[in-house]
Target: Peptidase
Amino acid sequence: MQPLWFLSLIGVALAALPFHGLFHGRPAHGFVDGGARRAHQQAGTSIPSDKYPDVVTDFYPQKVTHFDDTKKDTYQQRYRYNGKFSKKNDIVFLLIEGESEAAEKWIGYDKYQWLQMAATHGADAFQLEHRCFGQSRPYPDLSANTLQYCLMEEALEDVATFIQAMNEKMNYTNPRWVTFGGSYPGLLSATFRSIHSELTVGAVASSAPITLPFDTWEYAWSMEETFKTVPGCAEAIQDSFSHAQQMTLDVEQRKKLNTKLHLNPPFTDSTPYIEIDNFLYNVFAVFQDIVQYSMDGRSEVTKGKDGKGIYKLCSLMQTTDDPIDKLWNVITWSNDVDGNAPLTEFANSYDAFLVYLRNETFDDENGLEQASNRGWLWLQCSQLGLQQTTDQGRNIFGQILPINYFIRMCKDGFGAELMSAQNQYDRTAALRKKYGTGDYKATNVVLPNGSFDPWHKLGFYTPDEDNGVVPILIDGTAHCADMYEEYEGEPADLDRARKIVKDNVAKWLNH
Ligand SMILES: *[C@@H]1O[C@H](CO)[C@@H](O)[C@H](O)[C@H]1NC(C)=O
Ligand SMILES: *[C@@H]1O[C@H](CO)[C@@H](O)[C@H](O)[C@H]1NC(C)=O
Ligand SMILES: CC(=O)N[C@H]1CO[C@H](CO)[C@@H](O)[C@@H]1O
Model:
């Protein structure tokens, strides 16, 4: 449970976000940490506290930019070190962080898989926070002046200079570094291995999107496939979304939506289309959030089928006849199991959302994650793309989320000039050409993916035995499932996947 002061702060965010949940595929606390929270909830255990005596937090003076020698500014990049497992054998593990504050438990809680491997190999463990998230702030706010340096290329070079600096600081003579990362940091881990192979001996890249489409309809397509594994579920979802969309178009029916879904502010006769898109997006996001972490911590779900996952969602879609009541049931249940205050309304204002999005204050101290969501949207709009639309044509959600909605959001969030549609296409195309064509080449990389994870469609699946490139598709698991602690009763395939990861890491280390 969150402390009470936290709940009162949530009230502020509620005006903009429907609940403290998923934002563009990014859950509260970031991709990996959000998943960890849920895995613990499903297992009925509490989240390990953020107090680990073996962990030392420090800051490294990092260049603001690695691509302009005339610019000498530096910032303090946060990192952590855990020497608990160290056998002083120059084996060093690095967890690359991504679109959130780096959580201490990820380098302290030794049941996470990468730390289990650190124990096996007697490795020194480091965790590096991503620039522009958490305390790692190139400049004091997230205005355009800072955002121009919040780029994937810079983050990759941060990793390079960090490794070199630690080699010196720790007096490693023949260091063997292995990088780890899940989701977007999985992409960083994989890419770093391919561009800086001289600094590491291998990389684990969990649920890494190796292809970077701008219009990522594959995500909704995968959700549909996952819902289709439960009889009747996809049909029920299609019926509810189709009704919701139809009702937004009719002034009388809108009133019904207002009441049944407790929309605040309610729709009126003159509600503009952007607000309707925004409404449909917010409903869709609730479903994304549930699918993306469905089977992480599978044991509780399979025992009671009551965890936050597709099975409970699908049963809620059968408990009443009214297609809109079904949506409200899913929305409130999803909010409640996350431990949030009971939901009395569903935020329904794109304008309020923009106030939240445009806020340039770093706010990682207060739990609102405004800055992390702004930072994540910036990475998407300016480089990664990965906008989760429903542009695949016929599908169970309907044509509710066109790419235009996201293009407009990028413009509204960061300015029409910087984020004209053309700029968005050009910038994301440039990064895709560099790192996101899907034609991935490297040596010594393991790339696990979960079959239920909507992101798995962008994963890499072409093995290259000669070069030690090892993709794994894990049956029946979701996002980054291979990174968390083991659970009793978990799917057998997860065990197989972990073994492949561990065997490869051992091979790289000759250990
Ligand atoms: C590295 O070597 C220097 C110089 O010998 C020494 O002062 C320093 O304490 C060493 N650092 C570590 C982490 O062993
Ligand atoms: C921006 O966010 C900060 C930190 O959450 C908050 O104190 C401030 O009031 C916000 N500004 C606006 C204009 O909402
Ligand atoms: C994108 C994708 O899902 N690719 C492959 C993942 O792995 C399965 C099983 O190995 C393949 O059938 C998919 O084509």
Q: What stands out?
A: The chain has 19 helices and ten strands. Confidence is low (pLDDT under 50) at residues 1-16, 34-44, 297-304. The pocket of 2-acetamido-2-deoxy-beta-D-glucopyranose (ligand 1) is lined by residues 170-171 (CB under 6 Å). The longest helix spans residues 273-292.
